[in-house]
Input
Amino acid sequence: MKRLVILGVALALLTGCSSGSGEKKLEKITVGASITPHAEILKQAVAPLKEKGYELVIKEYTDYVQPNLAVESGDLDANYFQHLPYLESFNEEKKTSIVSVAAIHYEPFGIYSKSIQKLDDLKDGDTVAVPNDTTNEARALQLLAAQKIITLKDGAGLKATIQDITSNPKNLKFSEIEAAQLPKSISDVTIAVINGNYALEANLSAAKDALAVEDGTSLGPTTYANIIAVKKGNENEAKIKALIEVLKSQAIKDYITKTYNGNVVAVD
Output
């Protein structure tokens, strides 16, 4: 009888050990993100991170303030929605200590039209729509300058406005329009210069529909690439390094390329 009891206890202990040594508990990584394309891209990282021992929790935001405040407070491990100039401005204004740890993608500007097939078809006095905010207007003008449609004042860079146009051979007329409204303006102007995320929302493909697209090595994309940001001091955490490794992987780059038709471009 004693033997049976001892055997039963041993079996129970073995069973307990077996059930306790099952699947390893995953460490959570909580990341805040804008819905498109950031959260969509992050969802592709869920499975690879699970293989590395992490559970990726994605919290979606529709504003640009709360995800930074949540990183600062520790409610988020990281966020993915902004570019470095915005982050630097936010830190200065809000006295936060958030840093960039990796650039993941950029959203290129493209020149779109309903009335011409190529930029050589532009005629004297044609109309051009560009964003009316300083940053986006400058990128639009730099793209037009790169296509030799206009010339800009030396050093204008990413603060250029239409006042910095020094040469306009075709006497183009410029309309400054809110960036989000630019896709709706295409039928009213000859060409419109539109940011990748707004083109994406309007089902415009930079690869198929744009007459010209911002080069990835130009000033705009290299300055305004979208980043993974964390609270200063957490840059070297293992889970942050794992997150970056997955987001910089070829599989994620391939997803971006196939999904967004050139409106979102992975950064090397």
In short: The mean pLDDT is 91.
